[in-house]
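Support case: uracil complex. Customer-provided input:
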Amino acid sequence: MSTHINAAKKGDIAESILLPGDPLRAKFIAENFLNSPKLYNEIRGMYGYTGTYKGVPVSVQGTGMGMPSMGIYSWELITEYGVQNLIRIGTAGSFHQDVKIGDVVLGIAASTDSNYIHAFDVPGNYAPNASWDLLLKAHEANKDLGVSLKAGNIVSCDVFYEFGDWWKRWANMNVLAVEMEAAALYMNAAYNKVNALAMMTISDHFITGEHSTSEERQHSFTDMMKLALEMCIK
Ligand SMILES: O=P(O)(O)O[C@H]1O[C@H](CO)[C@@H](O)[C@H]1O
Ligand SMILES: O=c1cc[nH]c(=O)[nH]1
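Agent response - structure generated as follows:
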């Protein structure tokens, strides 16, 4: 048991885990995609389940919103429960015309406006990046699934409700989309030498003004869920 996760022991959480921000998305995945899912965490309502997918143990854990929350859950999963492969399955807002609602974006790197890197005391800037191993698995798994995938730099921001044209300056640097957790996940994974990849379904569009409903954010986006699950058995 750790401070924010009350799974009893290491083996109660699988080596590969899906990490949606929304705990109800975790519940939906457990109930619809995992065999014999067991609830191992409900502290703070941040549901975590372990079951099997095509015979392989897989867990799914809500991580909340923002880098402090992702930082806590991913750190405990890695250091207290030995999780090796962490796949964030989130939502994001697109900055580009050709990255459309429903597309899945793989964050090869995660730029950020956060100070999370201060925890690691590096003597310069740091470029949080995805695991090559997991990127290859995503590519491999998608050969059968054919999900509309885009990959590139994303930005993890501390503020959801930002004003003005801030996003255009990230778009100018060819950053594809905004979300709020990937950079912290990548830093925790790098420090602890484990694998992480953040994939996000586009739920909002800064150019067209489109927005998905909260119901869609919770229950839809099953392409991304299937892709992440298939990666766990590669
Ligand atoms: O859908 P999730 O995984 O929560 O991800 C995105 O949605 C939340 C904001 O609505 C932030 O957590 C952001 O990163
Ligand atoms: O952080 C996020 C997530 C989804 N959509 C956004 O616009 N921002």
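Strands lie at 16-19, 35-41, 48-53, 56-61, 85-94, 104-112, 149-156, 177-179, 195-205.

Case will auto-close in a few days if no follow-up is received.
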